[in-house]
Amino acid sequence: MENNINMPKQLVEMNLKAGEGKVGMPALKCILMGMMAGAFIAFGAATSSAAIHHISNQGVAKALAGAIFPVGLMMIVLIGGELFTGNCLMIAGVIDRRFRVSQMIRTLVLVWFSNLAGALLIAVLVYFSGLMDYTSGELGAFTIKVAYGKCTLEPFQAVCSGILCNILVCIAVLMSTAAKEVAGKIWACFFPILAFVIGGWEHCVANMFYIPAGIIASLNDNYAAKAEELYGITKAQIEASVNIRGFLSNQIPVTLGNLLGGMVFVALPLYIIHKSNSDKM
């Protein structure tokens, strides 16, 4: 069995070395890989929304979304990309003195904005592709509804939701590293991300698609009217919440929660358990 997977102690060392590679990456390469990752996650978000927008049973809808959304992380793992939430694991490299905290912060900031650029690009392309016209514009209305729910989320709830989300995302990243074969990497991505989507928890990069897509959709009168008809969200409520301020009111606490989930709940405990300065591999 040990020949087919990397064991937890190996994973910790691999994560440390990966962090060294990230902080030493040229800025342009980091930006491009960040944009790819943001776009890949956006593809998972857009297609899962398309699949579930007309399903009234919440459990069935979340299960189906959870089965589709992981494609984004699968593409990142197999093709490459820098994802902000996965990069929260870099904190172990700071603790192990592989690189400075300032280097980690620089990388995280660069990746966060690159993820945003990639997700925004897909949001714009999705709108102009006509995808939101599905079911006579119901997908456009559903996109507004999703964005409205995220923009009106209470900050403490958003932080807690962000923590839960990134525990699972970082575990998925580590599990995919543990697997040595493509099939193993795919399944390693699938199940933790399935769980996070079914839980309905908040992922800052996914929200870089969901909320801007909702803002764009809200500018379409047909979609806005459908949102009021189907979900009771009035035009005034949409204008008050689904905007840049609403985006930031979600992103700030969710990003904080994602940081805590990846760093405090995954990276640090694994480092303490499997690695110490007196036990170098």
Number of strands: 0
Strand content: under 5%
Report how far apart the termini are.
Answer: 21 Å
Tell me the overall shape: globular
How much is the radius of gyration in Å? Answer: 19 Å
Low-confidence stretches are none
Average pLDDT, all residues: 96
Per DSSP, the total helix count is 14
Order of helices and strands: HHHHHHHHHHHHHH
Helix content: over 70%
Largest sheet at a glance?
none
Counting helices, strands and paired strands, the structural category is mainly alpha
Brief rundown of the structure:
With 281 residues, the protein is an all-alpha fold. The protein has 14 helices and no strands.
Question: What attributes does this structure have?
Answer:
281 residues, mainly alpha, globular
Q: Could you please describe the fold and organization of this structure?
A:
The chain has 281 residues and is an all-alpha fold. The protein has helices at 8-23, 27-52, 58-68, 71-79, 84-87, 91-95, 101-129, 134-151, 155-178, 182-199, 204-218, 221-231, 235-241, 244-274. It is globular, with a radius of gyration of 19 Å. The two termini are 21 Å apart. The mean pLDDT is 96.
